[in-house]
Amino acid sequence: MAVAFCTVTQVNDMTEPIIQLAQADADDIADFKKELQDAFAVAVVNEMKEDPGEPIPSDEELDASFNAQGAVTLRILCEGRKIGGAVVSINDVNRHNSLDLFFLKLGEEGRGLGHKAWLAIEKLYPETRVWQTFTPYFEKRNIHFYVNKCGFKIIEFFNSHHPDPSHPVSGRLPVDEGFLFEKVM
């Protein structure tokens, strides 16, 4: 694991957990994928009422995200423990960046750690003009998180009548409908 290169803590309360970001290394990618897929599976199973029978997102989809132009794979650490991860795509020219994947490991959610991790990502990329991200329609907790906690606005709703041009509709999962969020810095 690379040395942490960004730390965020609340100044007014030193008892708050310290969140750090570190670039994920090659030895950690298999664990990163498994933890992300486990975290995403909970919501998909809750929505579909059955196991989809395959990891969501697939290993191939994750590899494409990790290897996309400008992609940075980050580990989220809480006091040195791996508690989640993120994949961001950074465009140094127009400074319109995207949060492609974001997760906390099962059991780490619900304590404000995700919000602190997002603040650390913002701090890590202070030159960003605009952030964008996507979440499926059924992910009410994600919608609350991005809009009410992180300050994003919903700018587009993708569905069968208005498909996302960058993600072909598969019809196999309820993730084909969802919201595009944007945060102007």
Silhouette: globular
Number of domains: 1
Radius of gyration: 16 Å
Question: Could you give the order of strands across the largest sheet?
Answer: 1-2-3-4-5-6-8-7
- State the CATH architecture: 3-Layer(aba) Sandwich
- The fourth-level CATH homologous superfamily is Gcn5-related N-acetyltransferase (GNAT)
- What structural class do you assign from the helix and strand content? alpha+beta
Termini gap: 30 Å
CATH topology: Aminopeptidase
Beta-strand percentage range? 25-35%
Helix count, DSSP H or I runs of 4 or more residues: 4
Helix content: 25-40%
- Rounded mean pLDDT score: 86
Mind describing the biggest β-sheet? 8 strands, mixed
Unreliable parts: 8-12
What's the SSE pattern? EEHHEEEHEHEE
CATH classification, class level: Alpha Beta
SSE blueprint and pairings:
Layout: E1 6-8, E2 19-23, H1 29-48, H2 59-67, E3 71-78, E4 81-89, E5 96-104, H3 113-124, E6 130-136, H4 140-149, E7 153-158, E8 178-184
Parallel strand pairs: 5-6
Antiparallel strand pairs: 1-2, 2-3, 3-4, 4-5, 6-8, 7-8
List keywords for this structure.
185 residues, alpha+beta, Aminopeptidase, 8-stranded mixed β-sheet, 8 strands, 28% helix, globular
